[in-house]
Amino acid sequence: MRGGSIAVVGGSIAGCATALAASRGGAEKITVFERADDRLRDRGVGIALHDDRYEELRRAGYVAPEMPWAPLTRRVWSARDGEADHGRAVGEQPFPFRAYNWGSLWSELRRRVPEGVSYRSGATVTGVEPDADGVTLRLADGYQEHFDVVIGADGYRSVVREAMFPGAAATYAGYIGWRGTSSDVADLPSDGQDAHNIVFPGGHCMIYRIPDGEGGHRLNWVLYTTPPRIDGLHPDPPTPTSLPPGRVNSELTAHLRALVADNFPPYWARRVLRTPPETTFVQPIYDLEVPHYTSGRMVLVGDAASVARPHIGGGSVKALQDATALEAAWATGGGWQEVLEKYDADRGGVGAAMVALARRMGSAQVENTPDWTAMGQSEFDVWWQDQNKGSDRRSGFGGHSMKVR
């Protein structure tokens, strides 16, 4: 399948990978519309790729060894134990992951988008109007253009998804992630190659080292918990959103800081509480499934298609794999209908399986936490295995294996 005009709505990790897929598939004209300006590259939060998923994506040509990363080898789950500085380990597990900085990974993918692709920053799509032979996009500045295919890579608030499946919005899971990064990376245990999960009643906090994009490292953490349902403490957003520092009220910040001080081992409490407020934000956690990844000449990739809670460790993997699968469908399909049907068949079941597994993990790790203080390694192993019961061979912790069909 060669030729055609393609619009990619959204220019982040999923959008850049999709533009690369469309170019390799043989699209004649590709335009990326990204509503943010150059500040998009300033996101500094951490993401991780399982070593096996990285190898699959490297062979497919979507990631490369020169992209800045930090090795992770083990995950240690620890609870507070009196005044013991590092607390007590309740369980350990292998953790073969590569840690990335969102901003630097995006920059590397953006650099790999072919020069012939038109990448338009500050371009907000406000209308998506399908017809028999394509889709017309309308922008906030009045610009409009007709394309053969429109691909929604515009995240959990996707305007393309809304055009395909009106009302199919991401659903708030009932709890939040409080995220932060800092330069406080000196003297980390195991030379920074461990990921640490600090556990407490009603949640946990994952802490690990990521590249800073400038040759050094930063400490990245995310704390999951359900704040009390009291005015000012529990965000209950009517529409999907995230809360940057200026929008997190003082009551919620004080509650979260007190939670850390009361429940974290002293060493890890200091690391989190020393994080500059301007590098923290609150991310309500969402779920999303769609009935199909395609409709007519419209396509969804990444979080525009399905959103799995972050506990599965596979969100960025899925976005990159969606692009890989779209390229493969392009290479074998003889027309638009065949290309899009192949892609939908390949990715729809994967997204649903990942959402289901992430919900089980969210229940076990946040909503219905065990008695961590009663756990040792054997109890931890049983608890972990229970979360993965019912998972099929296509999707597991760290994301879907593209080798398994």
What does this structure look like?
The protein has 405 residues and is of the alpha/beta class. It contains 9 helices and 19 strands. It has an 8-stranded mixed β-sheet with strand order 3-5-4-12-13-14-11-15. Strands 6-2-1-10-17-16 form a 6-stranded mixed β-sheet. Strand 8 and strand 9 (144-147) form a beta hairpin. Helix 1 packs parallel to helix 3 (102-112), helix 1 (13-25) packs parallel to helix 7 and helix 5 packs antiparallel against helix 6. The longest helix is centred in the last third of the chain and has 32 residues, at 336-367. The two termini are 24 Å apart.
Short characterization:
The protein has 405 residues and is α/β, with parallel strands linked by helices. The chain has helices at residues 13-25, 51-60, 102-112, 159-164, 250-263, 266-273, 315-332, 336-367, 377-387, and strands at 5-9, 29-34, 46-50, 70-79, 88-101, 118-121, 125-131, 134-139, 144-147, 149-152, 171-182, 194-200, 203-211, 217-225, 280-287, 294-295, 298-300, 395-396, 399-400.
Which characteristics define this entry?
single chain, 405 residues, alpha/beta, 8-stranded mixed beta sheet, 6-stranded mixed beta sheet, 9 helices, 30% helix
Shape: globular
Overall number of strands:
19
Order of the strands making up the biggest sheet: 3-5-4-12-13-14-11-15
The amount of helix comes to 25-40%
* Distance from first to last alpha carbon: 24 Å
Strand residue percentage: 25-35%
The major beta sheet can be summarized as:
8 strands, mixed
The sequence of SSEs as H and E is: EHEEHEEHEEEEEHEEEEHHEEEHHHEE
